[in-house]
Amino acid sequence: MEITFLVSLLLISLLNTIPFSYGVETISGNKYITQNTTISSPNGRFELGFFKSAQSSNYYVGIWYKNISPITVVWVANRVTPIPSAAIHSSKFRILAGDLVLLDGAQNLVWSTNVSAAKLRSVLATLRDDGNLVLSDDGVDSKTPLWQSVEHPTDTFLPGSKFGYNKRTKTKQVLTSWKTPDDPSPGLYSLDNDGNTAFQLWNGTEEYWNSGPKFGSGILRTLSLKQSPVFNFSVVDNENESYFTYSVIESVISRWILDVNGQQKSLTWLEPTKEWAAINLVPAQQCDVYAYCGPFSICNENSSPLCACLYGFSEKQRGLNESFQGCVRKSRLRCEETERFKMYTNMRLPGHPQNTTAGSEAECESICQKNCSCTAYAYINYCSIWVGQLFNLKQLGKDDSNGSTIYVRLAPSEFPNIQDTNSQHLSGKLKVVIPSIAVAAAALIACAIFYICFKRMRTALKTTAEAMVQVIDEDTDENGIGVQFFTLQSILEATNNFSNANKLGKGGFGPVYKGTLPEGQEIAVKRLSNQSRQGINEFKNEVVLIAKLQHRNLVKLVGYCSQLGEKILLYEYMSNKSLDTFIFDQTRRLLLDWSKRFDIILGIARGLLYLHQDSRLRIIHRDMKTSNVLLDEDMTPKISDFGLARMVIGNALEANTKKVAGTYGYMSPEYALSGLFSIKSDVFSFGVIILEVISGKNNRAFFQNEEISNLLGYAWKLWNEGNIMDLVDDSLHKCCKEHEVLRCINVGLLCIEEDPKCRPTMPNVFSMLMDESMTLPRPNKPAFVTRTQTCNDSSSVPPDKPCSNQLTFSLEGR
Q: What is the CATH classification number for the domain harbouring 528?
C-alpha cells in the first residue's frame, strides 16, 4: 500500500511539471509551451509555439497557420531578442506573476507582456480563432483583455483586427517588415499612422507613401479596395479612435503584410494551387519604395534585376538571403580638378537636394566641382546639388515626361580618355606617334578577336541541331530581334532539369515550367514538344513577333533557345497564371469582383487594339482564349502565346490559310469552316471571352440541353427573353454595376455575330466599353458554332453524334 501511495504521489508531481499536450488552447499557471509543444486555436487554423527558419539557429515564439506549408508566421513575440539554439533546451513560454513571459534555458527573462497583473487570481493566455493571442483574467469571454497580440503586431495585419490610432492613449499600431525572408528581426520598413495621416510607409525616417490626410472612405479608393461578397472593408473615425479593419468569409484565408521589400501586400491563400496570391500592392511599383536599391544605384522597373550600380561603383557585399544592399565607389574622390561628371538622362532625381542659384548648367557644374562634398548635380532652371550618398534614383520610361538629367561625380581613373596633366609636356612627335600606335594595336586586337569568334561560331554551328539561321532569318529587321539567346544548359539550371516540381502546366504545344535565372528573375519556360503541332516556323514566328511587340497588356518575351533539337521560349513569369484558372474555379473566382473583371476585359481589349491597329505591325492572334490571357501579381491581363499569330501586310485586314489551327469554342465560323481569318476572327474570340468572364462559365464545357449546347446560345436565349442578368456569375450580383455588365454583354454579343462584317472592330469595341454615353446597336443572332467530332479525338462523345475528320480543333489550352 505504501509503495502504491508513493508511486501515485510521484505520478501526480510529474504531471504537474510536464508541459501540457498538443492541442490545448490556453496557457495558465501550470500549462506552458516548450520547444516540443504548441497550442492551437479552437477552429484549428492557427498555432502558437517555438519556431526557427532553415537558415538560422535562433528560436522565436510565434503564431502561424497550422495547416499551411511552408510555415507562414503572422506574429512573433521575441523578434528583437531571439533564443540561440544552445539555450533553447528548457526554454518556456508561460504565465508568471500575472504576465505572459518567455524564459530561456537558464530561466532568464527574454520577453514579457509587462502588464503587471500579479494581483489577479487567475490569468489565462488564449489563442483565438482569428489568430489573436489574448491575456485575460477570466478566459475567452473577457471583454477587456489585459493584453492582446493584435495590438502589438509585427509585420502582419489579420481580418478582424484594428489598425489605427488611439486618440485617448496616443498609441498606434505599427507594422515593421522582417529583416529578410528568414529573419523576423525588425527590418528597414514600417507602416503606421499618427492620427492625422491615415497610413504612412517609411524606410527608416523617410516617408515614401501615404494614403491621404485623414481617415475616411478615401482610404479605400487610395488602396483600390472595393466591397464584395468576399471582402468587407471598414474605416472608423470617432472621438476615441480612428482605425481600418476588414473581414472575409469563413472559407477565405487572408492577411495583409509589410513585406521585406517595403511593399504593403494583401494576400489570399489559394488552396487548389497551395500558394499566396497578391491581390493588392502598395506602392504598386517596387522602385517607388524609397531607397529600395540602396546608395549609388539605379532602380529600373523594366530591367532584371531591378537594381544596378552607377558607373564607377560596385555592389556592396551582402549576406545569404539579403537583398541588394547598394553600391560603393571603385575609386575614391580626392577633390581634384580632373574629376568629371557622368550624365544620366530621364531619371527620377535623388532625395534631399540642396538648391542654389546658378544662371546656367555650366555654372551649376562649377558650383558642384568646387564643393569637395558634392557628389552630383542637376540643372532645371535652377541648380540642385547632392552631398554624400545618392538614394532613390530611378530610371524612367522614354515616354515619361517627368524625367530629369543628373550628373554624377567620378574619379579621373573612371574616365580613361581624360589626359593626365603630365601629358601636356609630351613632345609634338610623341603626341602623333602614340595615337598611331594605339590605332594599329586596336586593329590587330580586333582582327584577332574576329578570328577567334569566327572559329567558335563555326564550331557551335556544327554541334547545334537547329542553327539560329533556321529560326531567325531575313524576316527580322536589320538590327536583329533584340531578344536574348539562352543556352540549353542555363535553362536546365534555371528549371532544375525541367523537374516536375517546377512544372506549371501543359498545353497543346508542350509543358511550361517555372524557372529562376541566376540574378533571381522568375521566368516561365515554354518547352515545345517534339510531337507539338508548333514546328520551327511557328517557333520562329512567335520569337520574331513578340520581340517586336511592346505593350503592358502583352506578355514580355525574355529570351529563347534552339539547341540540340529543343525549341524553348522564356517569358516573364505571371504569378497568378492564366485567366481560366480564376473564372472557372469555384473558389478562386470569388477573388474577382466586378471591378477586377471589368478591368481585365478592358485590358484584353487594349492588348488586341494594339495588335490590330496601334503596333507598327498588324497582328492577328488567331488563338485568343482565357488560357492565353495571363495575370500578373496586380491582376493585369497580358495576352500570350503567339505561335499561331499572323502578320498582315499594310492595311490588309484578312488572309487565308490551308491549315486551320485554333481552339474549339473560340474560333469564328468563317475561320473554322473555310480557313479565312481576319481581325474580326480575334473580335469573335474576344466576344466569347467577355461572356465567359461575366458568367464564370466555359463555352467549351457548357451544355444545357440539345437545343442549347454552348454558352453563346444560352446568352442569346436570355437576351431575347429579357433575362440577360441571369447570365451573370452568382458571386457578382451584390457588387456589380448593372449598367456596366449589360453594356459588356451587349458588346460581347455584337462581337460574336455570324457575319464578320457585322462585328465591330477593336477600336469600336473599346469605345463602346469605355463611353457610357454611346448608344449600342442591338445584336443579331450569333454564330452557334457546334463541334464536329474528329475520328482521332480521344475525348468522350455521345454515340449518336456524327464522327467527321473534316476539321481539327484544339481541345486543350496550350
A: 3.30.200.20
Q: Do 491 and 387 sit in the same domain of this protein?
A: no
Total domains present in the chain? 4
Say whether both 49 and 123 belong to one domain.
yes
Q: Closest Cα partner for 636 from 286, 278, 283, 292?
A: 278
The pLDDT value recorded for residue 195 is: 64
**pLDDT score recorded for residue 706:** 58
Please tell me whether residues 38 and 134 are part of one structural domain.
Answer: yes
CA distance 571 to 554: 11
Residue 73 has, within 13 A of its CA and on its CB side, a CA count of: 25
CATH number at residue 67: 2.90.10.10
What is the crossing angle of helices 679-695 and 711-721, to 10°?
A: 70
Q: How many whole angstroms separate alpha carbon 179 and alpha carbon 181? A: 7
- CA proximity to 638, closest of 560, 552, 559: 552
pLDDT for the residue 369: 93
Residue that terminates a domain, selected from 347, 379, 414: 414
- If asked whether residues 507 and 621 sit together in one domain, one would say no
pLDDT attached to residue 142: 57
How many angstroms separate the CA atoms of 50 and 64, rounded?
10
**Backbone conformation region of residue 516, classed left if phi is above 0, alpha if psi is from -120 to 50, else beta:** beta
pLDDT for 560 equals: 87
The cell numbers describing 644, all together, are 499561331
Classify residue 135 by burial, with Cβ atoms within 10 Å: 0-12, 13-18, 19+: buried
Pick from 56, 19, 53: which is nearest to 38 by CA?
Answer: 19
| Range of the structural domain that residue 658 is part of | 580-770
Q: CA 264 to CA 220: how far, in whole Å?
A: 14
Q: In which residue ranges of the chain is pLDDT below 50?
A: 1-23, 118, 139-140, 418-432, 459-480, 649-652, 658, 785-814
Instruction: Quote the CA–CA distance of 374 and 774 in Å, as a whole number.
Output: 58
pTM for this entry: 0.54
Would you mind telling me the total number of residues written for the chain in this entry? Answer: 814
At 120 the pLDDT is 60
Each residue's pLDDT tens digit, 361-375: 999 999 999 999 899
**Residue 735, domain member (yes or no):** yes
pLDDT at res. 424: 37
623 belongs to the catalytic site: yes
pLDDT for 504 equals: 84
| C-alpha 279 chain-centroid distance | 9
Compute CA distances 775 → 724, 746, 761, 764, 772, whole Å. 18, 11, 16, 12, 8
* Active-site annotation holder among 288, 580, 593, 623: 623
- Number of alpha helices (DSSP H) and beta strands (DSSP E) in the chain: 14, 46
Query: How would you label 110-119 residue by residue, b for 16+ Cβ within 10 Å and e otherwise?
Result: bbbbeeebee
Mind listing the pLDDT tens digit for each residue in 176-235?
A: 999 999 999 999 999 988 666 678 899 988 889 888 766 665 677 667 677 777 888 888
Distance (Å, whole) CA 661 – CA 667: 9
